[in-house]
Amino acid sequence: MLLRAFDNAVMPLRCVFCGMRTREPEKHICAGCNAELPRIESPPPPVSSPFHTVVAPVAYDFPVDAAIKALKFQRKLYYAPAFAELLCEACRELPGDIDAILPVPLHWRRRWFRGFNQAYEIGKPVARYLGLPMVRGVIRRRATPSQSGLNARERARNLRRAFVVRRSIPHRHVLIIDDILTTGATVRQLASVVRAGGSDKVSVLTVARA
Ligand SMILES: [Zn+2]
């Protein structure tokens, strides 16, 4: 960590997508690549949605899909600050009353195997950027089998009672952060335990939307 911080201090960063040096110091995605990303307009959540606001700046499409897979499955952790950059930019679309951040928890066993929780890695800089605390005491109760390859109904069944809140949540409007929003089953399940834990409103911020 210290070494990486030192690296960044003495050398300009290179863009995670094209490898060129970024002109703005601290940026992990160059202006050219940023402009080329598969942007999506976040539609308002449907009336029956359990979320106050859902924001996902880019589509799960090239090169974002490949980068998310590389982060999660090949431990390419240098993508995490780049994704956090996209999330911080997208924060302007969020309501102003959000008072805490909750990266989607991983079961401890999966976190142990992977070595990190990607949602936490991209959520931590967002919490810092917004000056907000992380929600404590929400855990993933059991190691759910991988969600990929399951249909929406199987995912919902897979996730039932997957999260548990260990203490009451003193925050009114919690922002759930994850890398990708697919069917929304994971965040819906998480939102229901967050509200049961004491929050009034839940919003969602993900890097990509499939
Ligand atoms: Zn670039």
Write the layout of secondary structure elements.
Blueprint: H1 2-10, H2 31-36, E1 54-55, E2 58-59, H3 64-73, H4 79-90, E3 100-103, H5 108-114, H6 118-130, E4 138-140, H7 152-159, E5 163-165, E6 173-181, H8 185-196, E7 201-209
Parallel strand pairs: 1-7, 2-7, 3-6, 6-7
Antiparallel strand pairs: 4-5
Helix pairs in contact: 4-6
Bound molecules: zinc ion.
Describe the structure.
By secondary structure, the protein is an alpha/beta fold. The two termini are 32 Å apart. The chain has helices at 2-10, 31-36, 64-73, 79-90, 108-114, 118-130, 152-159, 185-196; strands spanning 54-55, 58-59, 100-103, 138-140, 163-165, 173-181, 201-209. The protein folds into 2 domains: 9-38, no CATH class; 40-209, Rossmann fold. It is globular, with a radius of gyration of 17 Å. Strands 1, 2, 3, 6 and 7 form a 5-stranded parallel beta sheet that branches. β6, α8 (185-196) and β7 (201-209) form a beta-alpha-beta unit. The mean pLDDT is 89. The longest helix has 13 residues, at 118-130. Helices cover 37% and strands 15% of the residues. Bound molecules: zinc ion. Zinc ion binds next to α2.
Which cofactors or ions or other ligands sit in this model? Answer: zinc ion
Q: Kindly identify the CATH topology of the largest domain.
A: Rossmann fold
Number of domains: 2
Q: What's the Cα radius of gyration?
A: 17 Å
Contiguous uncertain segments of 5+ residues: none
